[in-house]
Write a structure and sequence with these properties.
The protein is of the alpha+beta class and 560 residues long. Among the domains are: 251 residues, no CATH class; 111 residues, no CATH class. Strand 9 and strand 10 form a beta hairpin. It starts with a strand and ends in a 7-residue tail after the last helix.
Amino acid sequence: MPGNNTETNIRLAPCAVDALKTLTSRRETSRDATIRQLLAEHVQRQEQQRYPEDRLTHISTVLRYPPPPLWRGAPREDVPVRVRAPAALLERARAMSLRLPGQYQRAHRDYQARLLTDAVTTAIAVAQPFTDDFLNGLMPVLRHGAALGLWRLAVAASSTRPELEVLTRAEQILKATRRRNFEETHILRVAALLESDVAWHSQERFRTAEALARGYLTGRRAKKWEDVLASQDARWGREYQGWLRRELTAPTRRRYAMPGYDWTGRGGSAVWRAEHQLQMDYFEQWLVERTDPGSGRIDAVAARDPNWLLRIPTDWRAHFTPAGAAGEPYQAWAAEGRLLAFPCRARRGLVFWPLLSCADVPVGRPVPGFEAAATAAASLRPEQITGFIEALLIDWNHRTAHDPDEFDDPDVGLRLPVAKARRFGLLTSQEEHRLMSCARESTLRSMDAYIEWAVFGGADSGWVERMKQARCDGDATAFMRVTRAHTKKGKGKPFSITRATWRWPGRSVAAELASGRRLPDVVQWLATESHRQRGLALEQAMERTWRNTVDRFGFRLWEV
């Protein structure tokens, strides 16, 4: 019944829409009913496959065709199509669709189209083949294994120098017969992530995939190469190594759509994301194993970029419950908000944290007052809990404490809004006024510098006058409004107001909670701010990595 259907929108190639019209006319049904029938048939076929690699997808999915618009407001090549179908059918269709490594449900426009688009496109192509000038000659429907094999070749052919350093090192490690140490195993795991969860997408990488598809999946040998791509056997391995070893010389870059921009920043950021994901895996392992017998009970570990020191109260521990095992009383405590639970990827089970070690209670007991911190994590997804726990353990002043003369790293410091810190009684009214005055003076200096930059660059006199008027009035909000309107036209640069903040002088939120000195509202606020600024610091660290890799590996015109 129509009332039981969920409505969503997808975008299809015009030729796919024409094929859908043909099917609608042939079946003498409405377009909505035709799409529901096609999806039901498609899902049934996909679910009958014994192995996920044998499910079907359309070549347009792995080639990201039609491509997204180059800029906001640019004309689009695809056509919007409304889909009305039962929610359960839509979820099953998405679950059976091709997901390229690194694809997220909501991602940048460079990334693969939505999963439901692949399902509908493949369903139409199986029932009514279609083509156009772009798709002509390409093998239209292929197995997931072949699509992923083609994508891995595209990744190898378009990998940047930071990625190639890791991938070639991993290749050397795999060839060695000796026993691998921790560092070598770590590099292999980073290399695996570069081809899976952290892989970057771009139109250039999809163009590379198109060039490879036209070489492998056209003509009489298309089916044979589809088998090679799907099996990823020794022959495929030779192709992979051949593309991986290609030097990024200027002719190669020009040939494979890399002359003006070589995507080094995205490659360096991908390596950073892989390293960070492994660091979080090691962090989970430390949380669980530090309380195991013979573990040594290490209470502090250092994290890489950002340079955090994580400290945990000595008597806090975690409990691991294997998948499928009874988790009581920990499940009940987690439901009551007395501790946190998160999935452990390394051991495949649930971890409950934090618990106090007690001689008279073998299972331990929840930390008193932890409900305030748990409340701050109530809206987080299970996979975000590990990051929240890390935020609770960050020693925000370890550098200042150990070396007062060392320059404070701006990424390692918990900056709290002055007004709220004053409200919670963390600083006096005199300190609040002083910090607000400093922030205002900093904003005025930034306004003066911005005006000077605009005048030096020959900016429009009317724009400069409006900025000077806002500066004369001391109205930072109006000044930002003027600059933002000009920035949207591509003629200015971003301007930001300096916010009045106060640097937290304490250590970790966990230490404050364990001490029992803070009220629950203060602990909840500190936990929320710590988690927010942890995310900001990670974004800044990845941006810093992007800049550093561009400086080190970036393509230069004089290298041509």
